[in-house]
Amino acid sequence: MTKQDFTDIKKLLTTEKNIVIVTHKNPDGDAIGSSLGLYHFLKTYHQHVLVIVPNDYPSFLKWMPGHEHILKHDTQTAICDSKIDKADIIFTLDFNAFHRTGQMEKPLENSKALKVMIDHHQEPDSYAKYTYSDVRMSSTSEMIYHFMDHLDALDHITPEIATCLYTGIMTDTGSFRFSSTTSLTHQVIAHLIEAGAQNSDIHNHVFDSNSYNRLQLLGCALNNLKVIPESRAAYITLSQEELNKYNFKKGDTEGIVNYGLSLENVVLAAIFIEDKQEGIVKISLRSEGHFSVNDMARKHFNGGGHINAAGGKSHLSLKDTVEKFISILPEYNKALNNE
Asked: Per the count of CB atoms within 10 A, which of 73, 91, 204, 296 is most buried?
């Protein structure tokens, strides 16, 4: 965005508008944190604001201020489509292509609302009038903070805004340990704590609310962990039967892929999760150093993301998806062994 773009947006907010905030399918901590952070921020301008998500999100995020006002498109389709159709402005957060929103894709494409994209993923589509895209940023939640700064509105930060943005940054940086965490990120976090984010409470809400079944599922996943030494790779599988056995709930597999990456001499980790209802295998990829799982996901698994964190999907069986992953590793062995 240019300086003039921010000036234009600031002017737009001087009069009341119907504003909808949307994020991607299967929203994570950054998607919900950035959406609710922006929601509370726009409320300080007395705007009519709604957050709409494509589907449900993990229970460990359902304590954040304002979460009770979020609409879910898959269960509240008619009202969500109506709100999208009547919106004056739509903010799209933490994604950069409409297909990432599942069944919301067509309503968003058909909407005549002015669109503002705020996102940190690679290769954005060109659907928005105003595009704030920066792949160097740790998270979309950090970008919302800088968006506020560009509007000369950091004095608008309330404890609610600080809490939401802190949560989004914390979850998307792996509690500030991923390489995307910069000195600027820490400066932002320091300000959010000063503004009222209770960092210890937030960590407890997100990470210390495990159910017995979730821990049993983690044990199952770790038991399925396999290592491919010649490729410095590791992978985990979870079948639909295993998910059912441990009463899987959305969010229960969050972060499990990182256990593979924590192994000594492993620089590429994957998790393959069978979803019989959607007829796909969901894939999460993580890497260290300069090895791009974004490129791997885009080339082989209908996905994408960041250099060190990406996702995708496969329409093959779980077994065949794993075999495909193993079969493509030799073409990456040189790069993986150079890390």
From this structure: 91
- Whether 175 and 232 map to the same domain: the answer is no
Q: Verify that 53 and 176 share a domain, yes or no.
A: yes
Q: Select from 207, 232, 264 the last residue of a domain.
A: 207
- The model's confidence at residue 179, banded by pLDDT at 50, 70 and 90, is confident
Domain co-membership, 265 together with 129: no
| pLDDT tens digits, one per residue of 209-236 | 788 999 999 999 999 999 999 999 999 9
Average of per-residue pLDDT values in the chain? 96
Its pTM stands at: 0.89
d(CA 263, CA 134): 30
Supply the CATH number for residue 294's domain: 3.10.310.30
Tell whether 176 and 273 lie within a shared domain.
no
Amino acid at 182: T
